């Protein structure tokens, strides 16, 4: 989902993808991070070089991004 602050946060674009068989076996936190990773890649042309905010209702993600990199699984490190 891409939204613009000029439009009071109304959706501008939607994107989706289906997980591969391997990705279906990921832990829930990894699936949530994968969704964010997908969105950033999908909208790279719009967000590259700009400050942007990622909003998620998955609370464990907020604690993961505050941890030092060595304390995070290598799969999550690659997505950060």
From TrEMBL:
The keyword Nuclease applies. SUPFAM superfamilies: DNA/RNA polymerases (SSF56672). It comes from the Eukaryota. Residues 8-79 form the Reverse transcriptase RNase H-like domain. The keyword Nucleotide-binding does not apply. Residues 1-21 are annotated as: Disordered. GO terms for molecular function: endonuclease activity; hydrolase activity; RNA-directed DNA polymerase activity. Keywords: Endonuclease, Hydrolase, Nuclease, Nucleotidyltransferase, RNA-directed DNA polymerase, Transferase. This is Uncharacterized protein K02A2.6-like. The lineage of its organism: Eukaryota, Metazoa, Ecdysozoa, Arthropoda, Chelicerata.
